[in-house]
Amino acid sequence: MYDKNGKFHLDAKDKAILQKCVYENPYIPFNPFPKQAEMILATEKEVLIGGAAGGSKSTSLLMRALFYVQDDANEYHALILRRTLSDLKRKGALIHKASQWLNRKEVQNNASIKPKWDGTEHSWTFPNGNSLTFGYYANSYMKLVKMNQKLHNPDSPLLIEDVKDGETVKEISEPSYIDAQTRLM
Ligand SMILES: Nc1ncnc2c1ncn2[C@@H]1O[C@H](COP(=O)(O)OP(=O)(O)O)[C@@H](O)[C@H]1O
Ligand SMILES: [Mg+2]
Fold first, then answer.
1. What is the Cβ-side half-sphere exposure of residue 114, based on CA atoms within 13 angstroms?
2. In the chain, which residues have pLDDT < 50?
3. Residue 94 and residue 24: Cα distance in Å, rounded?
4. How far apart are CA 164 and CA 141, in angstroms?
5. At what angle do helices 94-102 and 57-66 cross, to 10 degrees?
6. Atom 25 of ligand 1 has which residue's CA nearest to it?
7. How far is 98 from 95, CA to CA, in rounded Å?
8. 111: left (phi over 0), alpha (psi -120 to 50) or beta
9. Could you report the per-residue pLDDT of 112-160, keeping only the tens digit for each?
10. 36 CB under 6 A from ligand 1?
11. Is the CB of 169 within 6 Å of ligand 1?
12. Residue of minimum CA distance from atom 10 in ligand 1
């Protein structure tokens, strides 16, 4: 994907993947911009993209998540996370965008590819069983947050609650996930 000078170009293999996973993918209505192609073809475990609003970052995520949903041979479940549910649900945000893509007539009128939306799970399931789910991780249950706050004991070595009889607290060393990432930047 990169030549000797580190410049991105599409080789025959990349072109074949794009053809199969994007151009022939009924769920993706756009052809990717070159930077989007670079992002969605990346084989690394983690990919960092940034840029100004409107730079097509979110669309790249959705394209990448839909990349393999039509692959009948492999079970595939994509999860897109945002901080809050409203970050997903706002007009123009990813749930809205996915619904525009997946509710197009040519998709919904074709039973063999028609996906189904579950509004409670925020999840699309495709006829082959593959899925695309939207999740969020901010604390939206203020009642639970308040309850947990009451369990804080400043004298306890634990974040929440106390050490009970028969329990021991042992310090262990765990490699930092974040340190490993910053070395790459
Ligand atoms: N490959 C593409 N072809 C056509 N329009 C695109 C493409 N990628 C993104 N867009 C459009 O560009 C606009 C901005 O994209 P978006 O992904 O929301 O940007 P960002 O998340 O970086 O703010 C949206 O209206 C989106 O539909
Ligand atoms: Mg965005």
1. 8
2. 185
3. 22
4. 27
5. 50
6. 54
7. 5
8. alpha
9. 999 999 999 999 999 999 999 999 987 767 888 888 888 888 888 888 8
10. yes
11. no
12. 56
